[in-house]
């Protein structure tokens, strides 16, 4: 049985309805509507997202991080309808400032501590919050909020501050933070909102950090999909981030050679507590990882690798 067939079997036997809909959208001509319908069940009345949309936090309450996950999934299926209830709901949540602390959307919220979760989602009142997920959510607001709204102006202010924070750095070691900086850049380019900060210097710094991150990436962590999103962001010009076809070939070969018998890939992280819940979340992550890894193979192995490695 080939790589694709094994992956498909795992998805159909184990995936949440949301990930099954994502799989069908990407590989079986499924609809965006099915993905949106499944995603809507994770959205709360306040417009934010919870209910373990982020697989490592079972908090049902809305949080900036779980809302960030929804924003990422909307980008994944290239959904940009400003009038859709999901997007309107997200803007409503972000406008409410729920989870907004000291000029940023918080990485952790207090109610995380009352539900099963990975240790990195523990809430601490003394935590200092960086621009994950704030830079990404600011970009979302720039892209979708009414340009005359207070939320849009707030997002522009945050975007300037986030850009300055990137320009002041020598490196970015947090992969998710780097992805948030990428998303801010993409949203500004997509909306022609390029006068907020020095977009050219920002782009140069971003490419430098992305190149460093890809060179240092641990392929064992491929299931979180972050490194692949770096590559996707520069797919039009991989040389701009110093990525060769040999590197892509190495990744593709690793994925094909390290798929487990059940069709999934190893999950490289663990929870320190809540063993029973982690066993469930780990299975959810396997479905997420399968989609990330198979999308990488689908997108790059045939049009970049000059060899026969069809899935």
Would you write up a description of this structure?
It is a single chain. A two-stranded antiparallel ribbon has the order 1-2. The protein has helices at residues 3-14, 17-27, 32-40, 64-76, 85-96, 134-144, 150-167, 175-190, 199-216, 226-233, 245-257, 275-300, and strands at 100-101, 104-105. Helix content is 54%, strand content 1%. The chain has 311 residues and is mainly α. The protein is globular and about 55 Å long.
Percent strand equals: under 5%
What is the H-and-E element order?
HHHHHEEHHHHHHH
The shape is globular
Strand order of the largest sheet: 1-2
How helical, in percent, are the residues?
A: 40-55%
**For the residues shown, what is the average pLDDT?**
94
Task: Set out the fold topology.
Blueprint: H1 3-14, H2 17-27, H3 32-40, H4 64-76, H5 85-96, E1 100-101, E2 104-105, H6 134-144, H7 150-167, H8 175-190, H9 199-216, H10 226-233, H11 245-257, H12 275-300
Antiparallel strand pairs: 1-2
Helix pairs in contact: 1-12, 2-3, 2-12, 6-7, 6-8, 8-9, 8-10
What characteristics describe this protein?
311 residues, mainly alpha, two-stranded antiparallel ribbon, 2 strands, globular, disordered C terminus
